[in-house]
Amino acid sequence: MELGRTLAQARKLLERTVLPGETVVDATAGNGHDTLFLAELTGPDGRVLAFDIQQEALDSTRIRLGNLSDRAELILDSHDRVADYAEGPVGGAMFNLGFLPNAGDRSVITRPETTVRAVHDLLGLLKKGGLVTVCVYDGHEGGDRERDALLAYARRLRESDVDVARYELINQKGHPPFLVAFEKKKEFREPLLLD
């Protein structure tokens, strides 16, 4: 299943860089799968900041966390406000773009302007060697605009600051998700953009 492959790749990357006890971010809590993964990864001394703009998503996440709920702060706010909640350094962050799976209202989607701002702010908050993973779903209304904005932003980052990789299945029909991973290479508060 292509979704599993994309998410599995994101998780493998984060498993190599996130350390127990670190602060991490689930920028799109959704149904809580990534929040639970991050809570397990960072352990009892870690801190997960899980963002979503829908209370329904945070309620699902709380249930999924079960007895690990004390490891996560569930935040009913947009991920582009991450700098208001995280002081850094952040060990890693995950995004799953699009809409809340199994929800009735598919008009509530992630947006290009908030996603790019959140990734930008997280790059400033990341530790050296930290990662931001973004699973991109572009087969829904508005998904193509968000994809294009994210990739345009990624191309403008200086290679001396950030490595950006794209992982995708190229023989799948339709619009399979793909992964964009940002790795911070050195210390900075604001990533430098090319002119």
Automatic annotation (TrEMBL):
InterPro entries, A to Z: MnmM_MeTrfase, SAM-dependent_MTases_sf
Domain of life: Bacteria
Listed Pfam families: rRNA_methylase (PF06962)
Protein name, UniProt field: rRNA methylase
Originating species: Bhargavaea cecembensis DSE10
